[in-house]
Structure formats: structure tokens, C-alpha cells
Amino acid sequence: MELKINTAASLKGKIAIPGDKSISHRAIILGAMAEGDTTIVDFLPAADCLSTLKCMRALGVGVEELSSTNLVIHGVGANGFKEPGNVLDVGNSGTTLRILTGVLAGQDFFSVLTGDESVRRRPMDRVIAPLLEMGAEIWGRKNGTRAPISILGHSLHGISYTTTIPSAQVKTALLLAGLLAEGKTIVAEEFQSRDHTERMLEVMGADISVEGTTCTISGGGILRGAEIDIPGDISSAAFLIAGALIVPDSEVLIKDVGVNPTRTGVLDVLKEMGGRLERVSFSVKNGEPRSDMLVKSSKLSGTVIGGEKIPGLIDELPVLAVVATQAQGTTVVSGAQELRVKEADRISAICGELGNLGAQIEEREDGFIVEGPTALKGTVCDSHGDHRIAMALAIAGLVATGTTVIRGAECVDISFPGFEKTLRSLIG
Ligand code: S3P
User: 156, 176, 286, 310: most buried by Cβ count inside 10 Å?
Assistant: First the structure.
């Protein structure tokens, strides 16, 4: 599918954003591991989360779809899954692959996980190595580092582990394996990654404690089903926030966005750059803060992003690159080499595509340098099969002259169904 975006005179209006992807995955998986029912409100019915749902069903979990966004998960208990009759296919979802590896390592059966071509390129050793230390038996392609992976599940024992890379997927896999293991499991990270799992485990009654960037979970605990109300995904909102900041004469109100502090790095950076964005309400549901956000077009300046800020805005870096092309001065992003092993090599993809649009962007091994502001010129771009690259290019198209065509834009449905409609409603 091709997405065609013309220069926008302004972005104006009030919008809601689909549910948070990370929280949606966790609500299904933790709900399945709980005893009793979990009701999920404002679930994200996007391809990635539907992959998790399909895997849960294949593992014997009952799911009632009251509507596309409201579900009831009939929990089977942490050890209650059934051996799947076939290979589990996670599609494009690295989150499903990594988290389920931890859950399945501690079940009493054999299972195989695979996914699409992009998922089969994603490094798995970061999660398999610590699980092997916990006593797991897991095999994978390329010397145990790539899917498909096969798992001979059985009892595990707790470990104390410092992750090699801050990663909420790895941390979650280890905490859920820890819930199934004997004894305590301690997971420490150099920098804080998103903490939705810890918050949800606490809501569901697990014995978990968090001190700084170290989490400790006791094995053998019982999770209780809960009502999980999911806020709008800040990573999806980030595209529209970016658009409203760089398109002149814009004013956009975004309703009910998740503002968990482990996810709001993008807001901090945009404010540092001079962005006029304001939180105009605040509430907390199931331990997750949320707020409405008012964004107005702004005069922006370049900034420096690196170090411990990176995990809190890793998914937003492609659209931050777009914003940087419209900011005065230099923006430097470093320490973001993880971007190379996402759905696509996002450093190479965004540098190449923005370069074609006329941006002054220099690729670095661990990030990029942008000189701004530059006038972008619409042309034909490629999504590289990556939803966040496709949407970042659509935002660039709003300020580029003429028409920007994004080829392979169907991948937007991985995380933001309705993106085009929402964006067009603001263009008017
Ligand atoms: C996610 C964690 C992050 C993020 C991904 C979703 C999650 O990945 O990039 O989009 O839901 O746990 P890493 O754990 O690889 O950093």
C-alpha cells in the first residue's frame, strides 16, 4: 500500500490515540497467567497484539472479544498453559517472541516460536542466555541466537542477573520466568527501561519489589485477574505531537495518553527543543498515569540525546529525527545502536529516507547527526517494512513540498491502525 501525504497548512483538532502496545501485550499475557478473569478495556487491536492473542489461544487460553478493543481473558494460572499442537507464530512482534520465551521456558511442555522474516533476524541471545542460567532448555537457529527457537519447558530456579542491554522485553521475560521459578529472581539494568510489567504484576498481586533499576520477584506467586484499562500509546501519539510541533498554525489536543515516566523521554526532549506541549489533565488507572496533551506549533532548536535517556525514547527516535530537520541548529543522537536491531535497521532506514527528502542527516554507528532547519522536498520513500519508519516519513511529508509517497505503508497497522484517518482528520 502507498500512503500519499501533501504539504499541510496546519494540524488542528482533538483526537484519541489507540491503546498502548506494550501494555496491551502484557495485559493479555499476565491476564492468561492469572487466576480468574482479566477484563481489558481499550486494548490495541493492532497486528502485533493480535499475534500475542493468537499465541495465547493456541496455548489453551480462553478469550472473549466483547468488541475489538474490549476483551475478557480467562486466566489459566501461571503454569496452566497447554502444549500447542503447532509452531507458535508471533508475526512481526519481537515483544511477543521475547516475553513468551520466558513464559514457555517454565511450562511443562515442548513449544516452538517463530515469526516473520524481520523477527527471525532479531537477536534472541539476550533473553536465552539468562534463561539457560535459570535451568531452561532452549535451542535456536544461528547457535541459539535467532528464531525459530524450540523450548523444552520444565522447572526453573531463580537467579540474580544484570542485563547486557536495557530492554523491557528481556526484563519481562526474566520476571515472568522468575514467577514460575523456585526462589527469588533479581533483574538489574544499567539504565531504566519501561516498567509496565512491574506495575501490572503489582496490581495483580505478585510479590515484586523495585529499587532503582533492580527488580526482585518471588517464584511461586499467584496472580489475580484484574480490570486493566489501557491508556493511549505515547509512542503513537509522538507522531502526531511531532506533526503539530513542526506544521505551522497547529493546535492539537490528544486525549488520554499514557505518561508513565519510563516512556515520556520524548516529551522531555521535545520540550527541551522548545516544543509547546502541555499536560492538561492527570489521572492514574491500574498504576499507569495518563493525561490529555495540548500541542502547538513551535520554534524548535537542536539538541543532544544519548546515554540513559535512550531507553525512554528508543521507539520515538525516527520521528525525533524528522523534528530535528525542522529545528534550528544541530541535533546529535548517540548510544542508540539498538535501533539497528528493531523491526528494520532504523538508523540506516531513517537516514537514507530523510536524506532522499533533502534532509542534512549523517549516519553514525550508534545514532545520527541532523543539521536544521532544511526545506524537505516530497519524493517516493520506502517504509522498509517498519511501522515507525512509515509514520515518521508521513510526518516529514506534512512539511515537505509537493507529495511524499510512502511505499509499503501497510505496516502502519502493526502498531497504529487508523493512523492515516486520524492524521487526515487533523489536516481537515
Ligand atoms: C518493548 C520494549 C522495547 C521497545 C518495543 C516494545 C516492550 O524493546 O522498543 O517497541 O513492550 O517491552 P526492547 O525491550 O528491545 O528495548
Answer: 176
Same fold, 2-19+231-427 and 21-229: yes
373 prior amide bond cis, ω within 30: yes
Decide yes or no: CATH 2.60.120.10 for domain 21-229: no
User: What's the predicted TM-score (pTM) here?
Assistant: 0.98
Domain parsing of the chain, residue ranges: 2-19+231-427, 21-229
Nearest residue to 36 via CA among 156, 155, 205: 205
Classify each residue of 28-45 as buried b or exposed e, where b means 16 or more C-beta atoms within 10 Å of its C-beta: bbbbbbbeeebbbbbbbb
pLDDT digits (tens, 9 = 90+) for 63-100: 999 999 999 999 999 999 999 999 999 999 999 999 99
Residue 170 CA: nearest ligand 1 atom is 14
Element (H, E) at 154: none
Q: 2-19+231-427 domain in CATH 1.10.3720.10?
A: no
- Residue-wise pLDDT for 147-177, tens only, equals 999 999 999 999 999 999 999 999 999 999 9
Q: What distance in angstroms lies between residue 94's CA and the mean position of ligand 1's atoms? A: 8
Question: Ligand 1 atom closest to Cα of 314?
Answer: 9
Confidence of residue 298 (pLDDT cuts 50, 70, 90): very high
Q: Above 80 in pLDDT, residue 428? A: no
Residue 44 CB–ligand 1 contact under 6 Å: no
315 close to ligand 1 (CB < 6 Angstrom)? yes
